[in-house]
Please model this.
Amino acid sequence: MNDMVFRDIHVITSKKTYLIFQNFREYNTSPPVSVGSKNNMQPH
Model:
């Protein structure tokens, strides 16, 4: 039961991460590492 829930959460999180990287790719063509560091610097 917990494995199923954990798997669903993992899939949802990876989908959100993929969408975030897709959005960054539209504005920035730098490697994912640079995008990640820039994302940390931006206020949420």
